[in-house]
Amino acid sequence: MSRGSRAWLVVDPPDGKIPPVTPEGRARSARAAAARTSFGSGPFDGPEDFSMWERCITRGFPGSMLPGVYGNSYQIVQGPEYVAIRYEMIHETRVIRLDGAPHPGNGIRLEMGDARGHWEGSTLVVETTNFTQRSAYRNSNAATLRLVERFTQKAPRTLDWSLTVEDPSTWTRPWTFAIPLTMNNDEHIEQYECHEGNHAVFNILSAARAAEKQAAGPIQ
C-alpha cells in the first residue's frame, strides 16, 4: 500500500469495485464451494477436498502473479520469440509466445492457460485463454474466460502490470486491476520444496481417519 500509492487495486470500474457476478456465475461458485472443503471443518475424505495451491499443484493464473504470505519473487526472462516468467511460489514457469501463432483449439486446456503476447509500442500485451475449469480464476467459466495483461515500464526499476478480466458468463462487465512491480535483484528465486514439506494435507487426512475410527468405537 505504501509503495503502490493506490487506495485499491481495481482500476476499472472507476469505483474500485469488482462488477456483480451473473446468476450463472453465482451458481457455479456455489457448486464449487459445496464440493471443496479446504482448511475448513471437513469432512476431509481425500486430497481432492483441498485447493490446487494447498496440494502444491498450481496457483493458476493470475494467482501466480499475485502476492501471498511469502515467496513473492519471480524472474522475467526475455528471448526473441518468448517471454518466460519463473515464479518462486509452487516453482512454476509461464511461457508467453511472441511469434504470432494463434491459441490452440478448445481441446487443449492448461492450468495457467495459454499465453500469447505482442508489443503495442513499449507495452507488452498478453492474452491468455484455454484454462482448465479446476484452476479458472474465481470460479469463472474456463470456456469463456479471457485475461489480458499489460506490462509497461514506468521507471528504470519499475513495471506497471495490469490485468483485464473478461468472462460474460461470470461478471456483468470486464474489470481491470493493476499492481506495480519493482526490480530487486537482491531477492533471488529460492528453491520451493512444496511437496517435500507439505505435511498439512497428510496430517489432516490421517487425523480425519483417526477421528472416524474413534467415533466408530470398539469392534464388538
What separation lies between the terminal Cα atoms?
A: 62 Å
Q: What is the succession of H and E elements?
A: EHEEEEEEEEHH
Find the structural class using helix and strand composition: alpha+beta
Strand content: 25-35%
> Which stretches of 5+ consecutive residues score pLDDT under 50?
none
Helical content band: 10-25%
How would you sum up the global shape? globular
Structure characterization notes:
The chain is α+β, with helices and mostly antiparallel strands. It has a domain at 1-16 and 53-182: Lipocalin. Helix content is 16%, strand content 27%. The chain has helices at 23-35, 194-197, 199-216; strands at 10-12, 74-78, 82-87, 93-97, 114-120, 123-129, 146-155, 158-166, 175-182. Strands 1-9-8-7-6-5-4-3-2 form a 9-stranded mixed sheet, with no helix packed on it. A hairpin with a 3-residue loop joins strand 2 and strand 3. The chain is globular. The protein starts with 9 loop residues before the first strand and ends with a helix. The model has no long low-confidence stretch (mean pLDDT 90).
Quick tags:
single chain, 220 residues, alpha+beta, Lipocalin, 9 strands
Quick overview of this protein structure:
This protein is of the alpha+beta class. It is built from 3 helices and 9 strands; from the N terminus they run βαββββββββαα.
